[in-house]
Specification:
The protein is of the alpha/beta class and 341 residues long. The protein has helices at residues 3-13, 21-31, 36-43, 47-65, 74-89, 111-123, 139-150, 168-179, 191-204, 233-243, 259-264, 281-290, 297-306, 311-324, 329-334, and strands at residues 95-97, 128-132, 156-161, 207-212, 249-254, 271-275.
Length: 341
């Protein structure tokens, strides 16, 4: 059992659903077998304070589990609790509905981004997350990969594309049909009531809902984050998803940050934004190899950096190099074609 898994389990058990900064230090270092004195030296806290925090944490866990938890038996108790939960979860039905999700069997890089998102969702219990980035940066692929990795942590996983700007009621009805196991087929005509119905399901079950291409609902060339006429209810949806307590996570991908996200987000809040930069060089070089290009380390690095690690731009450039230059990157660079694809 890894320490991150143990922390996630502990945070499920504690009434406040989250460890404080000092509690997490004590837990992590107790898990690693450190003494309270070692913890105090490493973290620059008073040894007495560290010991008091630890004692209170073990008492809280003992009350939650109905058995004595100490610094010394921590591993055994939590491993046994996790095994018992897994046995209970065997009877829970997990449902996934991937909609138009793309194939991500060839997915490279983004390990740090995946780790951050995993922590936000599993450890920090974020309710609303936005993946922000320019076109072609790989937001869609990352959202699908994340959902694949976390699907066993949720009772429901729903992935939906908003590329064709579906009307609000149509999209909410679609999601609620899945969450209600097709028991709810029609909704109130009032958008506020429709959102209330959705939130009830998000409270009842742990759900991961991904809405891809959210920017198609926003006005182009207007004030940042404003909605197209007739799509304003999506704004109320975001506001209530971010402000209302529930046990689920809704993740958006967008080229533009909705105004509600800008108002609600914060590093220590349950609404957050991850802005994607380009792929690291090694991941970009892998794309070039898969596209059939030949070139040395310096040539491929230069090509990746020229297109700032944008996966789509790299794929388009690689196709042109393959078709027009027989896959020879050096000739492409020598003729000064960079940035002209």
């Amino acid at each position: 059992m890894r320490v991150e898994e143990a922390i996630a389990l502990v945070e499920q058990l504690l009434p406040q659903r989250r460890l404080t900064k000092v509690q997490e230090i004590v837990f992590r270092q107790s898990w690693a077998g450190q003494t309270y004195l070692d913890m105090a030296v490493n973290s620059d806290y008073d040894p007495g304070h560290i010991k008091d925090v630890g004692s209170q944490l073990w008492r809280s866990l003992s009350q939650a589990l109905g058995e004595k938890v100490t610094k010394n038996n921590l591993h055994g108790v939590l491993k046994r609790t996790a095994q018992q939960q897994n046995g209970t979860n065997a009877s829970v039905i997990f449902r996934t509905d991937w909609g138009e999700a793309i194939d991500v069997s060839h997915f490279y890089g983004r390990n740090i981004d995946l780790e951050i998102l995993n922590q936000w969702i599993m450890r920090d219990r974020c309710r609303l997350i936005t993946l922000l980035g320019m076109g072609g940066m790989g937001k869609t692929a990352l959202s699908v990969k994340l959902a694949e990795q976390l699907q066993t942590e949720f009772q429901y996983v729903i992935w939906r594309s908003l590329r064709h700007a579906p009307f609000f009621k149509d999209k909410l009805t679609d999601c609620i049909k899945v969450l209600s196991c097709q028991q709810v087929l029609t909704l109130s005509t009032d958008p506020h009531e429709q959102i209330t119905c959705l939130i009830e399901y998000l409270r009842k079950s742990r759900c991961l809902v991904i809405l891809d291409n959210f920017d198609t609902l926003l006005q182009q060339g207007k004030r940042t984050g404003c909605y197209r006429q007739g799509y304003e209810s999506y704004g109320e949806l975001l506001w209530r998803l971010g402000e209302t307590g529930h046990q689920s996570c809704i993740l958006l991908t967008s080229r533009e940050k909705p105004a509600e996200i800008a108002a609600l987000e914060g590093d220590g809040l349950p609404v957050r934004t991850l802005t994607l930069s380009g792929l690291e060089v090694t991941a970009g070089q892998t794309i070039l190899v898969l596209k059939g290009l030949s070139g040395n380390e310096e040539e491929t690095r230069q090509l990746v950096e020229c297109y700032r690690g944008n996966p789509l731009a790299l794929k388009i450039a690689a196709t042109s190099i393959r078709d027009l230059y027989q896959g020879n990157i050096a000739r492409f660079i020598a003729e000064g074609k960079l940035n002209h694809i």
